[in-house]
Batch of 3 targets.
Target 1
Amino acid sequence: MLFLAFRHIFARKRQSLLTLLGVALGTGTFVAFAAIMTGFQDYIIDQLVNNDAHVRISAKETFLSSATFTPQVFPSAQHVFWITPPSGQKESSKITYPLSWYSRLEKDSRVLAFAPQLSSSVIFSKSGISKGGALRGVTPLSQVRVTNIEKYMLQGRFQDLAAAGNRVLVGEGLLNKMGARMGDNLLISDGRNAPIPFKIIGVFKLGIVNVDDSTAFAHIRDVQQAIRRPSEISDIAIRLTDVEDAQVFAAQYAALAKEKVLSWDQANESILSVFSIQDFTRSFISIAIMVVAAFGIYNILNIVVNQKRKDIGILRSMGFDGNDIVTLFLLQGVVLGSCGGTLGLIMGFTVSKYVGTLKIGGMMGGMVINYSPSIYITGFLVALGASIISSYLPARSAGKLRPIDIVRGGE
Amino acid sequence: MIKAVDLKKSFNNPPLEILHGLNFQINDGSFVSVTGRSGSGKSTLLYCISTLDAPTSGQVFFDGQELGEMSSEDLHEFRNQKMGFIFQFHYLLPELNSLENVLMPARKTGRHLEKTERAKELLKIVGLEQKLDRLPRELSGGEQQRVAIARSLIMNPKYLFADEPTGNLDSANGELVMEILKSITRDGKTSVIYVTHDPDFAAMADHSIQLADGRIILDEIRGQTTPPR
Ligand SMILES: Nc1ncnc2c1ncn2[C@@H]1O[C@H](COP(=O)(O)OP(=O)(O)O)[C@@H](O)[C@H]1O
Ligand SMILES: [Mg+2]
């Protein structure tokens, strides 16, 4: 029957070609979309996972309210009414006993490395230009073991920070916005203390605009001095041997400690939820295109089955049975579906390859494309599945035709 | 040998009995004409005895085997191996050339390669050895019908059914086709049962069955006459 199926397909070249293109377009779109979008997502996730911490322990901001004070100031009173209820935030958020954290983390075998940090929002200024941003005080040698920041240095090296002495690494965006160059001094102030000059000794670019436009790294001791919080830390960034452990790890420690312990995915929940919306949209578009292509196959085969009623009668009179007839038309759908699918995979590959050479957004060296086989397998299976389903109905109705009805129909 | 016993056929729409209990017997190697007015039930009879349609009641036996008792699978195989059909219209599969059309029944059992020589031989017998690779649309009506005859013979069937095989042909081509059909029965084993309107072609038969309003009014084997029952 395959022989005759092919003959049928070739006998109506234009229709077949159109159907083929429909399926190819659907599959191609699916593959290209998936390759580009998941490539991008994987890239971002990689950034999130590797450029920040797998798990971050940070001080809780404690807000003040009447409840904070009432029991302490009026321990025995039944009802206390404040004329002006107390409000505000505790002066600084810091991790209270960092040393106990260090010893716990050192004992935990899941921890690959950890790095204490002191972050503060600051104002950068230089010759009349000011800009708010974040200053991260780090211990450079542990920091490079926790994150991949080193990979993203445009100028200078991250370890250059190791020797303290009021030196900073700034994001490329921040550098440009401040109109600064390597070697310039940047005045940094937390708003409460006098600005202190820091020398720019390096530039990085993570490709995440938020970070690149507003972040500077300095040695933790310099930061502690600049904002007058000697020996305090606000965060501990942790890298695990296996990033898959992050959720469990974070949950365990969060239950024990009064600090906030967040795994990378909790910290980036909003981005990840955008991704799941993207995934949904993408599947939706691809499915819509596939449905259109499947309808094409369905329509054409329905018409063909009708046109071929006599041929079916002839075949039945030769002893071909209903199943042979079903096979004849099902095969046409399958052939069109799998050829269209294959063509679509090639189209999708070509498009994503091309997009891979484009420099969009802040990525280094062009868009990141996901070439994983699972996309191609899924794309092909969806195309094949859609064409089987859409050709099955016409094929079945053809198989049900009784030879006598068809043979007589011509008289 | 084909034997029909009290063969009846009615249609539901409109509800009408078309064949009113026919009895007859066709011997192997006969050249059988079925004649009668238009609407008298000739085609209906042909399809009922040839497994393409099922009679409403009554039995058809092929060499003692009753059709109604055969499984669908056996029926298809029987049709493929033992029967050939020739229709008045639309003889061939339009996508296939003459040779491929002739070989199509052999494809059912995957024997088209071993049958290729036989197919060429048959096409030579019907005078088309020059046109093996022509598509049906490149052939005249008579040539198409001859390809259809070659196709119906490829499996060496024991029974050949032809519903007005010459109905669409000019007289020269019609005669040619009838000569070929007649020659098939010369082996004494193959029977050809054909419906025709042409008195000359009907006269070629050695067994004539004549229908009127769904009843047999003449059943005559050359040399002997059986009265209609
Ligand atoms: N499928 C059918 N449904 C109802 N009536 C039918 C059907 N097929 C044939 N008939 C009727 O049966 C009668 C015999 O038809 P047919 O066998 O084709 O006659 P013939 O071949 O002798 O011209 C006609 O009256 C025709 O209208
Ligand atoms: Mg008729």
Target 2
Amino acid sequence: MITGKILYKRPKTLKDVNMSYCPGCSHSLMNKILCEIIDEFDIQKKTVVIAPVGCAVLLYDYIDCDSVEAAHGRAPAIATGIKRVNPDNIVISYQGDGDLLSIGMAETIHTANRGENITVVFMNNAVYGMTGGQMAPTTLVGQITKTTPSGRNPENEGYPIRACELINTLEAPYFIARCKVTNSKSIMQTKKILKKAIGYQINKKGYSFIEILSNCPTNWGMKPKDSNKWIQEVMSKYYPVKIFRDKGEA
Amino acid sequence: MTNKIILAGFGGQGIILSGLLLAQAALLEGNEVTHYPAYGAEMRGGTCNCSVVISDKEISSPIVNKPDILLLFNQPSKNKFEAKCIPGAKVLINNSLINEQALRNDISSFYIDATNTANKLGNIKIANMIMLGALSKITGIVKLDSLINAMPEILSARNKKLIDLNVQALKEGYGLF
Amino acid sequence: MNKKILMKGNEALAEAAIRAGCRYYFGYPITPQNEVPAYMSKRLPEVNGVFVQAESELASINMIFGAGACGARCMTSSSSPGISLMQEGISYISGAETPAVIVNMMRGGPGLGNIAPSQGDYFQAVKGGGHGDYKIIVFAPASAQEIVNFTVLAFDLTIKYRIPVMILGDGLLGQMTEPVVLPEMKEIQDDINWSICRGQDQVIIRSLYLVPENQLELHNLHLQKKYRSIEKDLNKYYEQYNANDCDYLIFAYGTTARVCKAAIDRLQKENIKIGLFRPISLWPFPKEEIISISSKIKKAFVFEMAQAQFEEDIRLSFEGKKEIKGFYKLGGAIFNDDEIYELIKKNI
Ligand SMILES: Cc1ncc(C[n+]2csc(CCOP(=O)(O)OP(=O)(O)O)c2C)c(N)n1
Ligand code: SF4
């Protein structure tokens, strides 16, 4: 028999299955972090995750919580419906940049504006991952994608949208932060922030919006390590990592 | 005469590309062709395949249910497709990655050390061309010259520099039989 | 004649649109038609055209409404869930009578479904998926070459009749690579006297007519008159394969029809007299032709990748006069010719 202290194990809420995310993708990391937090609060049985349309569409195959699979961009509206029926449940809307800022912009803004007591986890990887790497609202100027073959040109495609800054113009949101998960320090920091957000939801404080600068090694055409470097050196210049608003600390 | 071909392997082994090259070569010889790749979610699992139909008359169905020629690049593909081909089918097996022999004795199987040969030529990615070269020699459905002539149409923008290497691999595969 | 080249259905469609004078494309990514926007984003700037990736299909269809209001040759493309979102816009465009070419490469449904080939949007396409009494022209090609030919025709018709024209394909047709002969690039000068932005007397593009009797009713009567004349004009788009003098006739369209042909070839070798009737325009539906052919056969079969949607129109044409047996594949599953062969053998 092996004795000793267990230092690390798979969170109970994270199913013991192979994920279909590409190797090194931030989605798999964030799925796990979310499960750790759900375990730490012991809220597995009352958490509902909304699966978006995007690479995380099979979220419910990895996270062992009740789930509703939304139409593209509509996750926050479904979250609203669930939360209004069951205010004591914990509702998490997990979305990519195409889902949240493009087709779902109206739902995103209005859910925030109503201050729905939900947590939005926003995976910003600057492309449409699932459909094969087209431009997203967050694609950087000059960035080459399947639909910007010569690089994003602001004259035709406009500028990348900064989600936290946009949400921060609204009165209702309680907690708004941008994080990254490029090294162990930033991963720990991200977990702390997301845990705080879900804690606010448990305490019925209101709407939280947590953006994660994520990678997409596959569609960026980079090794995972280089993709993290790119987030560090390029992406976080345009999207500053910080806490934009924390009414709990005010 | 109609040939129904399935090429199958891992994503990244150039399966779709070799299917296109085969189709283009057959087109150059004046045939009708169709090429239908597995796409999207099917690719996510890491396996990848495409169906090519070559005929001297109009092709009705591009869907290949029972192939008469099979190019197998890895073990999972063998597991999936060997049972499906018609009796008498010609089955090309990349035995660098497939250790198992053909399970059926009503088919003609050919073993090609494609991945190792590609490695010796300096690029593991050209194993697909070794297989196509061997296919040309074994079945004669397209001529080696047609495959070589089709190359610029298929590889054009993507990796023109590699054309010479790919041609060398085609010839190498052709020479194996 | 231009050379035969290998092209993927989606790319052949995009190039054909450009050669038919399309200079404005608005669309949103969705599998299995992503090659269309990708191709357009590269190719349109080369011909001084405009490519915009819309923020949603809701936006795409309304961008098309705007471009169409200017009389432009414009196009959007999507697949099933995206086309559902466009239904409101298609209703408005139909009411306002502006040109629009809309491509639907159908995938498995309902809901998010999957990305495999399907024909589950038949009703939505031909019966009017949005609100109100309207019709759109629907072409169902069965090969890359037909995709090219009917895309070109679609642009001429949408300008001529000021009615949306849909190319209804499926994942297989979009993803399959086949030889095509492309048409020459057309130099288009449409003579349009109804559009906005011509700097003349006020032009209003609208679908609101508040008074029922003498406004909206009249407008609807006008639309219906137009639809009747389109039905008369476009009654020749169908294919018959061994359909003369046969006991059994298969009805199918698009991908499914192609697969049926392979089975028919085999059945004929066994001296079974069987043929195929394949509508290419699904609206207008070649009803007259089907009525006349139905009297000559013993029994009809319908094959479709949907639950008796297309079959319903065949039944309406047959008016119960002959036996019809339908076979369906659902949720992105596709027929193969062995299966069709067996099903026919068992049912004759
Ligand atoms: C109405 C509708 N339009 C388009 C799609 C196709 N689609 C699936 S995922 C996706 C984009 C996903 O990108 P993002 O939200 O950035 O998430 P990621 O895949 O990068 O995680 C799109 C456009 C769809 N499923 N439904
Ligand atoms: S495509 Fe990109 S976002 Fe999607 S799983 Fe792969 S790496 Fe992650």
Target 3
Amino acid sequence: MEFFRKLFGGQVVKEVDTATTAPLTDQQIQSILHGTKAQFDLQQLVAASGQSVGKQRELNEDSLLALTATLAGNSGSLPFGIYIVADGMGGHQFGEVASNVAIRIVAGHIIRKFQSYLFSIKPSPPDESLQEIMQTAVRDAQKIIQTEAPSSGTTLTAALVLGQQVTIAHVGDSRAYHIYPDGRVEVVTRDHSLVKRLEELGHISPAEAENYPHRNVLYRALGQGEILEADVFTVSFPQAGYLMLCSDGLWGVVADQDMLKIIREAPSLQRACQNLVEAANTAGGPDNISVIIAQMIG
Amino acid sequence: MGFFKEFPLETQRITMPEDSNGDATPRRQLESGITLLKRYLIQDVIGVGGMGSVYRARDLHFPNVVKLVAVKEMINTAPDPLIRQTIVQNFEREANLLATLNHHSIPRIYDYFTEENRSYLVIEYIHGKDLEAIISGNDGFLTEEQVLTWGIELCEVLSFLHNHKPDPIIFRDMKPSNVMIDHNGEVKLVDFGIAKTFQFGQKGTMIGTEGYSPPEQYRGEATPLADLYALGATLHHALSRRDPRMEPPFSFEERPIRKINPGVTAEVDAVVTRSLQYNPEDRFQTAAEMKDALLAAAHKTGILSKVTTTISQANGIKPLWKFKCEDEIRSTPLYYQNTLFTGCYDNNLYAINAGNGEFLWKYPSEGGIVSKPVAFDDNIYFGSEDHRLHVVGARSGKVVWTYYTNGPVRSSVRIAEGHAFLGSDDKYLHAVNLNSGRAAWKFETSDPIRSTPFVANELVYVGNEIGDFLTIDFRGELKWRFRAKRAITSSPVIDKQLVLFSSLDGTLYALDHRNGFVVWRFRLGKGSISSPCVVDDIVFVGAADGFIYAVEARTSKELWRFRTDHQVTSSPAVYKDSLYCGSVDGYLYCLEYRTGRLRWKFGTEGQIIGSPLVYDDIVYVGSTDNQVYALLA
Ligand SMILES: Nc1ncnc2c1ncn2[C@@H]1O[C@H](COP(=O)(O)OP(=O)(O)O)[C@@H](O)[C@H]1O
Ligand SMILES: [Mg+2]
């Protein structure tokens, strides 16, 4: 009752006559109390990653970046993370330049926008929307790749985790997954590859897609094209599940259900990543492999 | 365009330099004032492309007249000298070929030369604009007649190229930015595939432009039929204003022209559709054939002389009933137990039999009522400009209690957790206990609150007239705040993780409801006080620019917009597969909510300022002609 008085400015509550019209039922107060308490519990974002050049390539053209921040205090805590996978490509050594430029420029851009929010005494949120920040980050990277590594390109799957939301910028055929403990494995990005497009249109079957001769033709890549339209969207962080980003060196060779099994059975996120990379290498390791897994605890 | 992730190893070896020094060739543009070959005085950049820039230059060999030329620059980025040399040889061979072409739709090639790692082509200067600039520079659709005329001319020039002897010439990159319309309205084809010779190591894979190219060209096959597909894509873009580079490839079928631009005739649509068939066998087999089809469509419809007409409007719609009050209706009605309640500027709250429009009772407040009434436990709650929240028995029409604020109440009431939440022009957000009729708390803000609070997650969300958006917990304490540039009169709505509202600053905002981070912003043409509504992850909202917008909630992409003839202050309502929304132009619009296509519109004799309400297949809406209308949905 004491709490309730504080809650509603000293209004005296008489009998609770019906559940809906009473100011607040005991149950509702409990849920408020509970909810309030939960907000002050430290909610933590954790992440791990893995990478390998694979078994058949000499060059690693993949780049990845994982950055997790926890800032907690009296005003609560807000999970913050930047996760990026980029799979470079090009006729010469520019592929790895492109993917390296992509992860650094994109992450740098995001961090600069959140400088004040993260590191100022009086934090202020960025002026732009999260989706605008991701869009401009991609545009910056596009420009720089075109001058630093002309005629190369890279895929980019970048996730900005802020609170319970994940804002994703995506170009190419690296992927972001939501993986749930109940066994659901959902691809949240859309491959910008010719083969996927033909499959979407029903011109080839999933089985034909597996052996399609032009599997590696992308219709969108960072560094390519006059105007680049990245997919930018915001989804909820998978509740009680995992956010996974990876290059096609993983998803192209390890089946969804095997990935799920490996993650479920691993004692830690780090081990899960290592085991995923190993599984891809065991399956022949035809391409560079990169993976990042993030999880929300609390 | 299609881009190979891996290169054939041989290519890789040849083009791989020993070290990476100096590979990232500076691609600086020439400054104006520079003279090339002591002859071409660079004046300005007129285009920027993948391989270099295009400049306008003056040819100094004609000292007495100003002779302008276009100088197209191609930067040779190949690191290997041998490859570089091959590229220059290819370039010169192609330039020689182009110089022999004689057609009124192809600009003359005057000269070509190479300086260090840059090669140049000197071309007849076209006074005009490229088609891409024309499409995007126009607010509305280009006329069908116009596009058709250009389409026919483009077929002619393609036919000329494809019939070139000894070998056909494939244009390879048909798209709006490579088509210019000169000051006489004539079509000119610029940007021959020549520039593509500079894309070393990737020959056959980089030709064409994503979005406009047919499937086979993504696999590296450039054929006359591929040019025709790209021409179809260009016409599709010009008629629909939908840029295919923004869409997945081969998705024209998902954007039928006539759905987007109903002014286009079925005949023309059919020609474009045929040219965009997935299988080359299903398309036109020659440019001449496609030209004949365009001509036939033009004759059949008489397009080439006719002015396009706008959508026919089915206006045979009759209201089921209408009810006349004594003054303007600016608010939104409420349906409760077969009764329609509506506030009116004549100070009364009216109760009308929803079935037949018969008057039941009216309750007088002492000020105009612009807010939407709310029903709870057989009582009707509404605010009035007489500063009060009124609570009236739904059947009796008799006052139960009233609550005073210190300013006119224009916000509607939100009932949650035993409290009525409402804003007032007295700048306070009021939480009124339903049992006692007294304030549980008041939260002071810096400006009047006309937005209707939204309650969820044990928080109250509301905007005010200075542009603050506030989230207040049940103790009356501020949780977080966001500032828009102008007033937030629109009422927020929460959908999944987002809280959505529009502002007079011309933005539709989507904030993370937990912490106020702006997830996205969508620019409206003008300010808005219309409250968004969300269905199927689509956000609908009106704005003062007269448009009703549909925006995808996940991506903030516009799905469609529909133009009315005046401001849209009304908030859209979705029912089954239709969207209903009023406009100050006096009409109630019924649109297909997925496409924005007009189903019907109904004209009132005044303006529609409030929002429609749909219940049980009937739409109710008030107008400033003093009437409430009931229409079949
Ligand atoms: N002969 C010309 N006269 C005037 N403007 C031209 C001419 N050629 C090209 N342009 C302009 O420059 C732009 C780019 O030229 P283009 O030849 O298409 O180069 P790119 O290979 O870079 O696409 C065109 O879209 C057009 O606006
Ligand atoms: Mg061009």
